[in-house]
Amino acid sequence: MENKKYNTIVRCDFDGGLQMPKICVSCGAVAGEKRHEFIASNNLGTSKTRIKFPVCDACYEADRNYVHAAPVTIVGTIAFILSVFSLFNKPEKYPSGLFLIGGIIWLSVIVAYVIWTNIHAHRLNSQEVISRHNELKNALKVKRFIPFHRHIVGQITLAFSNAQFAKAFKKLNKGTFIK
């Protein structure tokens, strides 16, 4: 996967809310009411906030329809390995043949489910869905977050991959470009 370049960095004051342009944070198309959530946290990880950025219908649907097969594959592999090891440590109260048949059936179910999930993901994740999902996931990066406290206004620094969105965001939030 290619690395996304964050060309435009914007710093602005943060008091708990940000004004959002009416364009998609990912592709720059006209955005409706749909939002994608990004999480900002301070350096220590003691404070974090969720910020919802506007997205167009196409990016929203692509992100919603994207099938994540990796978590199922990882959990299935771990379950498979643990199950194989458990076959070598059979309890005394079960007959060997019954325990072996049950183990083989269990391992077959794990393998079948992992294979089915990966085939299902491959069928549903078209190139456009994968591309839009990855672009949305990498549309911005939180560089720095200083939370607001009582009478002290915080600050947030965001690196955008979409320069058009960054310019509009900077203007609405009275921010400054960095670099």
Tell me about this structure.
The chain is α+β, with helices and mostly antiparallel strands and 179 residues long. It has two domains: 8-65 and 138-178, no CATH class; 70-124. 44% of the residues lie in helices and 21% in strands. The protein has five helices and six strands, in the order βββααααββαβ. It has helices at residues 57-65, 70-87, 96-124, 127-137, 163-173, and strands at residues 8-14, 35-41, 48-54, 140-146, 154-160, 176-178. The strands form two sheets. It has a four-stranded antiparallel beta sheet with strand order 4-5-1-6, with helices on one face. A two-stranded antiparallel ribbon has the order 2-3. β4 and β5 form a beta hairpin. α1 packs across α4 (127-137) and α2 (70-87) runs antiparallel to α3 (96-124). The radius of gyration is 23 Å and the shape is elongated.
Which short descriptors sum up this protein?
single chain; 179 residues; alpha+beta; 2 domains; four-stranded antiparallel beta sheet; two-stranded antiparallel sheet; 5 helices; 6 strands; elongated
